[in-house]
Amino acid sequence: MSKTDNMLFILWLLKTRKRLTAKQIAETLEINIRTVYRYIDALCVSGVPIISEAGHNGGYSLLDHSIEVPLFFDLDEQKALIHASIFAKESGYPFEDSLNSAIAKLKMYTNEKQLDEINRHLTGFDVISTPTNPKLNSYLQEIEQSVANGFTLEMEYQKRDKQTLASRHINPYGLIHWKSKWYVIAFCHYRQEIRSFRVDRIESLNRTISTFEPPVDFSSKEFFLKNILPDQNTQENLISVEIKGKEQAINELCQHWLFAHLLVERTNEHVIVKLDEKAIRTYVPYILLSYGKSIQIVEPLFLKERMITILTELLNHYD
């Protein structure tokens, strides 16, 4: 058996018996007694409170309160889990209470040295985000449960004009967190197609008695990206956008959610991406405006002209 399997088996033995000697463990696992000592030491370092008693009736045993909660995380793993929990909570993770409970248990059953080290690494580690609406949190919980169990949901949804409500029945396939917003990817019974809905636009949400089976091998992430990015399978309809500029600006541009997925060629001070004409004429100019004079559009010409038009309109607006 592997080291991990042996360590798990040792814990199982200690859980099912009050006390065991190193010799008894070695004979049961058919391993060297020195190896048992190493495994016991590794378990103790991982935070498992194993009691060692010397003498004729001595041996190894577990503290009663730890029997159901053995930990196998080293210091770096515990630190990573707690750091990740901070990101999860700040993104609006819908099961924050359970997350807090898990982290509390992790801290409770670690040793004092590890806990002190973890707390020192948490000092100054923060994530800043927009506070979430408590109602949104309950919707996310319901959607996550319905995705897992295949429940059809009925919702009142705020349309894009933000004044009209639409009643929809949906089969939720997945949840996506993107740019500080939550989206549910679902089959819409009214439209008879898979769509994405912003969870913060849901006014009411109820589980129905209907159930569904999700499509085989369906990826909510792939569906979402496909709907916000140009179709790379139709390259003949895409237009090359060439931009040059300062190295820092080019680096930031290449990390933007749109350009990062559509890179064709790049150097430190030059980048080429391929986009459809609609994107180039609509939201791309507004993205590029934020970079000011640190970048310069090489082509296409109509993108330059569109930038001039937008800037002229802004100038006239504030004149």
UniProtKB/TrEMBL annotation:
InterPro entries: CBASS_pafABC_assoc_protein, HTH_11, PafC-like, WH-like_DNA-bd_sf, WH_DNA-bd_sf, WYL_dom. Residues 139-205 form the WYL domain. Residues 9-60 form the Helix-turn-helix type domain. Pfam families: HTH_11, WYL. It comes from the Bacteria. PANTHER family: PROTEIN PAFB, PTHR34580. This is YafY family transcriptional regulator.
